[in-house]
User: Fold this.
Amino acid sequence: MVDEELEVEETPVETFEVNYSCLRCGTTVSNTELSGLPEIKCICGFRVFTKARPPVVKTVKAI
Ligand SMILES: [Zn+2]
Assistant:
């Protein structure tokens, strides 16, 4: 019997992710989430966002 190892490949994220926060309710949404929406709009219905700082990118280096 051969053991098969399932390899999980993570799709490299090349797109620069920017987070926006709603001016009204403060909900943080990323541009990738926004681009998946039919229109740029918060869940509360507000359309004005402020640019928030991008999430911390964790870089793990195996030494
Ligand atoms: Zn909102």
Q: What stands out?
A: Residues 19-52 form one domain. The chain is about 10% helix and 15% strand.
